[in-house]
Fold these 2 entries.
Entry 1:
Amino acid sequence: MNNSEILFLYDAKLTNPNGDPDEENRPRMDYERGINMVSDLRLKRYVRDYLADQGYPLFVQKMDGSPVTAETRIKKLGTSNDQEILDQLIDVRLFGATMPIAKDNKQFIGPVQFNWGYSLNTVKVLESSITSTFASSDNNKQGAIGKDFRVAYSFIAFSGVISANRGKATSLKEEDIAELDRALRYAIPLQVTRSKIGQYPRLYLRVEYKSDMTILGDMRDYISLKEKTEDIRDISETALEVGKLVDFLKENIGKIDSIHYFCDSKCILLNHDVEVTFQQAFDGFTLIEVE
């Protein structure tokens, strides 16, 4: 197993990508720049929910529909042996965990890490009032009134790293990474809730290197969103410029084993302002599509 780096893009239309409980569940924002923010924990939750739906037992999960303590979850596993626990729990192999084993806390540092995601465009937050059919209290028979916050449109980019050396410590498997690839393709639209509907994965690259020593850096530095109109509201009003990224990766092609990818048909790619397919843009690399 060797190192990989990830670029993951999805968009959000009239939805709330990541509510902030300290701000009335408003979408997380850098208000000075008008940038929508999404935490790495939100992305990992999508992955965990997808893996749970695929039948994988997880460390971070509810039991019988209710939250439990870490101690209770460990007892349910029926073992305190490190390796047996790792063999059972794909989320620990991927993301690590601090686990109460015996009288100590055993820390596994996750080989898969993501930065916070941020929007490539400036984002407007829309606010509306919502009402409930149920009375707000026994003494007030009127329905409760609340606030609903959503982004008008946000094109969100995440960067991630897979460390081969840390993967050895958690017994990370190649099959686990393949499941991560599939989760990032399918998890978000499959985990639809009222506040999350309207989000779709648009582009995914996992650049797999030839060694466990190579890290080239955040690929978001080499992409930009071209907006066909002011105040965009839909992916049809955008195009993604990847020319600098292609050039950068070609400069380092000797370090790259393969690129695992998917590209949504609605995501228009530009290579230095020329519209191209994904295969045309990344011609010369070993490309493996995530099915």
Entry 2:
Amino acid sequence: MAEQYRNKFTDIVWFVTEDKLFKDEIILEFHSFVRIISGEMKVIQADKSYLFAAGDTLLFPRNQLSAVIKRPKDGRPYKAVVFGLAIERLKTYYTKHKFYSTSPHEQKVKVYDPHPLLESFFVSLLPYFDLKERLPEDIATIKMEEGISILRSIDKDIDSLLTDFSEPGKISLPDFMEKNYMFNMPMKKFAYLTGRSLSTFNRDFKKAYHITPQRWLTQKRLEFAHYYITKNNVKPNDIYLEAGFENLSHFSSAFKRHFGYPPIELVK
């Protein structure tokens, strides 16, 4: 499991490290500003995938459903620094600063080219992990303003994302599930992202599909894996994580139960 270290004396930054392959589904309640130090991270979303390596900088929007696969590279573990842009801090910032409304933002990962301001900002965060006393609130506020100001200087459209404080509303359940079935997360998260309570989600799902959510998800993930193995000539151990399974053994046994033969037969 990935180790996430946040110094108890500050709540704005933490350090993530992993010395072996690790996969997780994430949906954060805050925007996260990330610098990859070493290793690599693959981010899989409903309509796009990204591959990040050492030196890359990205911004994860809040409430953004993504699967992340982190692994060591070139003999070095995966390491990253994460700076959290919490909603309450953003609200405080924008009560004091004028914002510029541009076109509606897209809920997708933002990727930034190398820039001296980004380099200096993330380097300045590293000593925070050695704090032995509480980071003064006025310094945390200054650091937050610095991070937001840098984003605004290199991304002229960022205000439309950072000033969107709305929560997910009720959306089409079939449309959402068809795009996001490969994400392995609790049903209450699926319910939340479609703007429903868990009981309403289960009722609406059964009305739409006439099957339980878990059974439908398993079938969809197996069909996805079958398609990629046959059409793209990939090996089972290269696709099971992206298909939403936690380990190769579980994937192989579920595949055989569903199709009547193990996935390796498709490779042969």
